[in-house]
Amino acid sequence: MFELGHPWALLLLPLPLLVQYCCRPFEIREESLRFPLFDELACLHRGLGGVARVVPGQASVQQVVVVTGWVALCLSLAKPLWLAPPVALPVAAREIMVAIDLSRSMNETDFVEGERTMDRVQGVKEMMARFAQARRDDRLGLILFADQPFLQTPFTDSLDAWLQLLMSSEQGMAGSMTAIGDAIGLAVHAFQQARTGNRVLVLITDGKDNASMVPPLEAAQLAARHRIRIHTIAIGDPGSGDQNQPDFRQLAEIASITGGRDFRAADRNQLLAINAELNRLEPSLRGRRVHRPKHSLHHWPLSLWLAVSLPLMGLSGWRQRGRADG
């Protein structure tokens, strides 16, 4: 299938006729003497060893070349395009930002795997690695927070790079306190660059907010206005009596304001169960974008005109010289 990129260029086709009509050539009329024996005089001149030449009129071949050249130029300016068959390209239909608490308390080694114990950061890394493996069709981003949040990686299609940055994060690299509200605010800002309208924030923390400039509930309301759904994961046992345990009620309210779910994980097994529930709530989505490749053919009209007109002009000139010399 063909189409023109600049169809307005075809309006230039009648321009030479318009110029010829509006701009008459300058003419001077003078009286002249008709000489009836011109042919005999030319033969006599050749007989004396001279060369008689006749100035030819404008050749019809030249007119054809000029007209077709103008048409070819206008067609090239119109930019003819060949449209290839449509191609369906898979694209991410959901973007998920993961915000992980790296405060001092995340260094607690209370996660057990068989005979091996691990700290909370390592347990979260293991959970999110499994989470990412099921997200091949989504775009993931990563926020790490403690005293303040920072964007470890913006939304990316490269899950291998995302996992590498996740695994390189360490407890204490962002401070020792907990800025939940600021982490939500940074996520809202990051979602301004999102490509889709399906926006999810997974917030993982084991403590209370004690360092934010923006209160967590106000940040949650801001996220709700930007259609961001927040799932909160509180790490810790509500019955432990630990003063540094998360504010479970506040995290549940954050999830409720934004239309998300709140989860609690006291050990590694509960974290893995939450991972399965998140995959059920937010199944990986694949969108599709239809792309139709376009190939420009603007050089074809002029190339074809040159390939035909140059030999014709050469042949026409050779014939005219032959007639004049003969």
TrEMBL record:
<protein>
    <submittedName>
        <fullName>VWA domain-containing protein</fullName>
    </submittedName>
</protein>
<dbReference type="InterPro" id="IPR036465">
    <property type="entry name" value="vWFA_dom_sf"/>
</dbReference>
<dbReference type="InterPro" id="IPR050768">
    <property type="entry name" value="UPF0353/GerABKA_families"/>
</dbReference>
<dbReference type="InterPro" id="IPR002035">
    <property type="entry name" value="VWF_A"/>
</dbReference>
<feature type="domain" description="VWFA">
    <location>
        <begin position="95"/>
        <end position="281"/>
    </location>
</feature>
<dbReference type="Pfam" id="PF00092">
    <property type="entry name" value="VWA"/>
</dbReference>
